[in-house]
Write a structure and sequence with these properties.
Radius of gyration: 15 Å
Cofactor: Mg(2+)
Keywords: Hydrolase, Magnesium, Metal-binding
Structural class: alpha/beta
Subunit structure: Homotetramer.
Shape: globular
Strand content: 15-25%
Pfam families: Hydrolase
Distance between the termini: 26 Å
Family: Belongs to the KdsC family.
Number of strands: 8
C-alpha cells in the first residue's frame, strides 16, 4: 500500500520507458523503438481520466505511437522529447495550478530523479534502479510495463472512493 495521504492526489505523472513499457525495447528494421504496453495499465489510465485525476506522460522518447496510445486513453498532457524533465514538470504544475504534494510521479531511472525529489509521492516499478528506489514512498510489486501503472492508479482511485464507483468503470 502507498504510505501517503492519497486524498491529496490530483495528478499522476508517468514516465514511459521502464514504467508504462518494459525496460527492454525492440528496434524496428529502420531503428524506430517499439514499445510494449500493458492493457490493464491502459484501462486504469482511461478510468482515472474519467474520474477527474489528471494523468500526464513525461518522456524522453519521441515516437508517434506513444502519443497516439495515450491520447486514445484520454490523456491530454503528453510531453515528449523531454531532455530535462523537471522543467517540463514545472510547466505542468503551473498549467493546472498544482502543488508538488498533489502529485504522484512514477519513474524508474536517473532522468526521473529531480522530479521525484520534488513531487509529493514518488513511486516506481519493482525493477527501477537503486537510486530511484531509495527516494520512493512506494515501490510497486509490479515491473515496468507489467501493471505498475494499474497498481498505483487503482490504489489512488480506491482511496478516494472512485474505483468501481459508477457506470464509468465498466466501459472504455
Amino acid at each position: 500500500m502507498i504510505n501517503y495521504d492519497l486524498s491529496k492526489v490530483k495528478a499522476i505523472v508517468f514516465d514511459v520507458d521502464g514504467v508504462l513499457s518494459a525496460e527492454t525495447i525492440v528496434l524496428s528494421h529502420d531503428g524506430e523503438p517499439l514499445r510494449t504496453v500493458n492493457i490493464k495499465d491502459g484501462y486504469a489510465i482511461q478510468l482515472a481520466v474519467k474520474m477527474g485525476v489528471k494523468i500526464a506522460i513525461l518522456t524522453g522518447g519521441n515516437t508517434e505511437a506513444v502519443r497516439m496510445r495515450y491520447e486514445h486513453l484520454g490523456v491530454e498532457d503528453i510531453y515528449m522529447n523531454c531532455a530535462v524533465k523537471v522543467t517540463v514538470y514545472d510547466e505542468f504544475l503551473k498549467k493546472h495550478n498544482l502543488k508538488d504534494d498533489e502529485v504522484i510521479y512514477v519513474g524508474d531511472d536517473i532522468p526521473d530523479y529531480e522530479v521525484m525529489r520534488r513531487c509529493g509521492c514518488p513511486c516506481c516499478p519493482a525493477d527501477a534502479c537503486t537510486d530511484i528506489k531509495s527516494i520512493c514512498v512506494y515501490i510497486s510489486s509490479r515491473n515496468g510495463g507489467h501493471g505498475c501503472g494499474r497498481d498505483i492508479i487503482e490504489q489512488v482511485l480506491r482511496a478516494n472512493g472512485k474505483w468501481l464507483s459508477d457506470a464509468k468503470a465498466f466501459g472504455w
